[in-house]
Amino acid sequence: MKPKVLVTREVFDETLEYLGAHCQFESNQEDVPLEPGELARRLADKDGVMCCLPDRVDATLLAGSPHLKVVANIAVGYNNVDLAACTARGIMVTNTPGVLDDSTADLAWTLMLGAARRLTELERRVRNGEWTGWCLKQWLGVDVHHATLGIFGMGRIGQAIAKRAGGFDMKVIYHNRNRVAPDIERRLNAAFVSKEELLRRADFVVLQMPYSPETHHMIGAAELKQMKPSAILINSTRGGVVDDAALIAALKGGVIRAAGLDVFENEPRLNPKFLELDNVVLSPHVGSSTEATRRAMAMTAAKNLVAALTGATPPNLLNPDARRR
Questions:
Q1: In 10 A of CB 267, how many CB atoms?
Q2: Domains of the chain from N-terminus onward
C-alpha cells in the first residue's frame, strides 16, 4: 500500500502528479490555512506531510501523529518546525535550499532600489494626483551605485545579493557567524568586518540570516543608532530578526533614512504604524514568489518526501540523526 501524505496548502498540478505516482495524498487545494486542531486531525493517519511556514509542527502535534516519518517543509527556513522534537521521534525533516537563492536576492535588490528612490511613496503621489510638474529638488532619493553595501549573513542568498552589487560598483562588506572562504571573498570583492563596523560604515544594511533565539531582535534600537542617519535597512530574511517597534521609532525620528521590508514580526499582522510611514517599502513575504521558483520549491519538497518514504536519504535532510533511530 502506498504511504499516506498530507499537503497542507495548495500546490501545483505537476507536484500532485508526482506525489500521486508514489503516495496516497490529501491536498488542501482550497488553500485555507489549517488551524492546529484541524492539522492534527488530518495528520493522525499520515506517514508524511508537506507543509509551509505558517504550519507549526511541534511536540504536541507530533504526539498525535504516530505514523509520521517525514516533514517536508516548502521553504529554506524551518523555524516553524521543532527539529529536536522530530529527531527524538525519528521523524526526518527536510527543506528546499538552492532553488530560491536568485529570486530572493532579486527581491532584496527590489527593496533596496525602491527604498533608495522612494518608489512606493512616489507611486502613491502619482496615483493621488500630487504630481504637478518637474522640480529640481523634488522628491530626492539616494544613489545605490558606488555606495557601501553591508550584508549580515553570507550564505547562498547573501552571496547572490553581493554578486549583484558588482554591477553597481558598490563596496561590499559583510558579517557572518563564520568568515567565508578567501576565494569567495575574492570572487565577490567582499570584506569581512565586525557587526559594529558594518553598522557604522554601510549605506545599505541587508539582513539575510536565519531566525533563531540567537538572532531574535539582532537589530534593535541600539543597533539602529549605530547606523548612518542616511542609511537604509533591508530585511528580506525573517520577521523577528528586527525589533519592528524600534525600527518604526527610528524611521519616524530620522535615526535612519528608510527601510525596505519583506518580513515582519507576527506576520501577517504587521505593526499598523508601518502603514503611516512614507520612508518604508513594504512587501508581503514574497522573496521567493516567482512562478518558476515556487514550482521548483514544491517539487523539491515532494522529492524529499518521497525519498524519505521509500527508504532513500532525502537530498535536503536537516536531521540525519533521525534516520538512525
A1: 17
A2: 4-98+291-324 (3.40.50.720), 101-282 (3.40.50.720)
